[in-house]
Amino acid sequence: MSRVGRTSLVLIAIVAAGTGGYWAGQHGPALSAAAWQQMLTLTGGPSSPMASAAAGPVIYYRAPDGSPAYSATPARTADGRDFVAVHASEEVSFDGKPADAAPAPAVAAPRPILYYRNPMGLADTSPVPKKDSMGMDYIPVHAGEGPETGTVKVAAGRQQQTGVRTEIAAMRALVRPVRVPGSVQLDERRISVVATRSDAFITKVSDVTTGDRIARGEPLLQLYSPEIAAAGAQFLTELGNGGRGGTGGGARQRLENLGVPPEAIAELERNRKVPPAMTWRAQRDGIVLQRNATEGMKAAPGDILFRLADISTVWVLADVPEYQLGAIRPGAPATVRIRSLPGRVFEGRIALIYPEVVKETRTAKVRIELQNPEDLLLPDMYADVDIATGDAKEAVTVSDSAVIDTGTRQTVILARGDGRFEPREVKVGAQGGGFVEIRDGVAAGDRVVTAATFLIDAESNLKAALNGMTSPEATP
Description:
It is built from eight helices and 29 strands. It is of the alpha+beta class and 476 residues long. The protein is rod-shaped and about 140 Å long.
């Protein structure tokens, strides 16, 4: 019933009560002219919707007492009263005016209501309007409202309330980073030791200790070796005799075999005198990793007196899980962040994937070479390593949030326009950078839903279930 009609009934009842109550209801003609004029004025006069005859087809039937009970066909209350027919002309528009108060543009005829479904998605339908246990109205399902198979329509207002967002599926090259822990290690090729190849006595050690940085050619120690001294004397004799063109001949080779540094041999040749102790110098720039030499000690052949390392280039050894090894290739770029150097980022490339897997951890080591010009990277520092995987080939991709993954199937919601959405099962591929590769089911340029996907998917599943329950023969 229209709002105007309900208001008119209330006003009539008030006027009737004020002019005689029950007697007025039984003996209407006895009302005074003033009372009838007052009633017509309050109800809108003879031209009001109530005063005019109802026209148009019957839309539905309502309870005579105004309670929220409706019927698609003529019906009666429990006490035997007939339901009131509501005609098309009695409908009221949203601005409060009767539907026939002013000419309106021609619109399509209203679609008949087939049935009403539960607002909470339960498998319950009704042939007439009703409310559920919480007082929520059942939702009408009109003829032709089940558009294409598997498609659901969502009103614009509901899209805004649920926060539906969409994006265009596009061609992208996926880069999938693998983040693993690692540590800084010395470049094995840049480590050297200082040792003798004969018995020797250490006569002096330079003022360098473990951890000190040294330069190439800097003196480390002086030692006396009887065997080296004898070879040096023989070398000078051969030089004096002009042996092998004045180069020292076999004596020079003997000194080299004893590990005498080239600069010590050159000094011997220049001074033509065997010194009481030979000076050993650093063969590279770097740091002192180990100092074992002590003044006055005797060193046996092979004893390590100093251990030196060049740290201008270092390695980062990262532990990559076995299941991620297939995505990593030598030469792939890697980003290294040192935990003790916040804010500093070092760029390098994969130099080697070690050909073994540690059985206890099921990881394999990956080596990354880094330049260290500032000597900030020190051995055994902890690092976080991001290794880029994937190739440069572009593929159809959508955002991670667009894919509904149940574990056995993956679904994407396509936005068809005009509030229509269609769930589409897809085959996914690689992931990375917040995107997922779609190998089948979606083409570049398709618009997909990235937010509220589960709500639309639930609505679609509900509609499919209801359609299955209410076949044309079983529709109320």
